[in-house]
UniProtKB/TrEMBL annotation:
Pfam families: PDH_C, PDH_N
First-level EC class: oxidoreductase
Species this chain originates from: Streptomyces fradiae ATCC 10745 = DSM 40063
Protein name: Prephenate dehydrogenase
ACT domain mapped to chain residues: 294-361
UniProt keyword annotation of Amino-acid biosynthesis present: yes
Segments forming domain Prephenate/arogenate dehydrogenase: 2-289
Catalytic activity of the protein: prephenate + NAD(+) = 3-(4-hydroxyphenyl)pyruvate + CO2 + NADH
Length: 361
């Protein structure tokens, strides 16, 4: 791949363009808002000048509702040898493109499973996709050359290709992406009118649950509008669990010992099923989640403190598998949780104490 056209210079389009440009591909940028394309170009994502002829690959990075029409227009103009989109739903755009009479042999649907709460060209990053799954949903008509171009794009972005059926993909993202967004927003919405004393008690748990609730509502309306059925199916199953859990909690208020026992059983059941489901979430490098041990260290909110603690862990010869930071409300301090192999935890704890760090049980 020597040349590419990226249509849509939001977070995903700009990030893909930055990655391609960094690896020597000449990238042309287009957007319905010329200012966004100019902003992406100013960031080094390519040029906002139109290509002089067909490029190797056209990447359509527009909202799902506009994917098919944008692809069809580019195809009619003969913009590229191959075409793909990066929308978060796949079945609908593919069917819409076929209904428009487009040649599906030059097209493949894709979806990079990566993003963040910010949007727009200024949020783009050339390393956004590194190590992340990038789903490819070829149809029966997709030409091998186009599939190879898509695989090359994924490789240049340093992502991991995953081939799926389009409708299976949409059911999967309804469960692992779209429903979590709505649930996060629903939990965060409870905080809007909450008393200030309650909000001040927010800890790491509520921060984790509500992190993605900061996402752009307009963007998510576009996404959910393109995949409403599968998302509604997951929410209906979740609603059944919620109803049962509410009944169990009400039973715990009963004066009847039998009902309280039923309540305990119901609450325990959902918590245990949650444990089982969480255990299936892939861990580091996509492997089965490992049982890490946590070494919790008190840390002040000052420049260089994180670098110092990581350096001290390195001097102890311990690899940090994962890290989390819990901030103390109203204080310039917090707790950094270092996840390490169980056999390494005692060594790390002893080494950090020797170097003056205060550990938390």
């Amino acid at each position: 791949m020597r040349t590419a056209l990226v249509i849509g210079t939001g977070l995903i389009g700009t990030s893909a363009a930055l990655a391609l440009t960094d690896r020597g591909v000449t990238v042309h940028l287009a957007d319905h808002d010329p200012d966004r394309a100019r902003t992406a170009a100013a960031r080094g994502a390519g040029t906002d000048a139109p290509p002089e002829g067909p490029v190797d690959l056209c990447v359509v990075a527009v909202p799902p509702a506009h994917v098919a029409a944008t692809l069809a227009e580019a195809m009619r103009a003969g913009a590229a040898r191959g075409y793909l989109d990066v929308a978060s739903v796949k079945g609908g755009p593919q069917r819409e493109l076929a209904a428009l009479g487009a040649d599906l042999s030059s097209y493949i649907g894709t979806h990079p499973m990566s993003g963040k709460e910010q949007s727009g060209p200024l949020a783009g990053s050339g390393d956004l996709f590194e190590g992340r799954p990038w789903v490819l949903t070829p149809s029966r008509d997709t030409h091998t050359e186009v599939l190879n171009l898509a695989l090359e794009l994924v490789a240049l972005c340093r992502a991991v290709p995953v081939v799926m059926d389009a409708d299976a993909h949409d059911r999967a993202v309804a469960l692992v992406s779209h429903t979590p967004q709505l649930v996060s927003s629903m939990v965060a919405a409870r905080l809007e009118q909450a008393e200030e004393t309650a909000v001040r008690l927010c800890g790491q748990g509520i921060r984790d649950v509500t992190r993605i609730a900061a996402s752009d509502p307009r963007m998510w309306v576009d996404i959910l509008s393109a995949n409403p059925g599968p998302v509604a199916d997951v929410l209906a199953a979740l609603a059944a669990d919620l109803d049962e859990t509410v009944r169990s909690l009400r039973a715990l208020q009963s004066a009847d010992d039998g009902k309280r026992d039923e309540g305990v059983t119901g609450v325990e059941d959902v918590l245990r099923r949650g444990n089982a489901g969480r255990a299936r979430v892939p861990g580091k490098h996509g492997t089965a989640p490992a049982a890490y041990e946590t070494v919790a260290v008190l840390i002040s909110d000052q420049p260089g403190e994180l670098a110092r603690i990581f350096a001290d862990a390195g001097r102890a010869g311990v690899n940090i598998e994962d890290v989390r930071i819990e901030h103390a409300t109203g204080q310039q301090a917090g707790v950094v949780q270092l996840m390490v192999a169980p056999t390494a935890a005692p060594l790390l704890a002893a080494s950090l104490r020797e170097r003056g760090w205060a550990l938390r049980q």
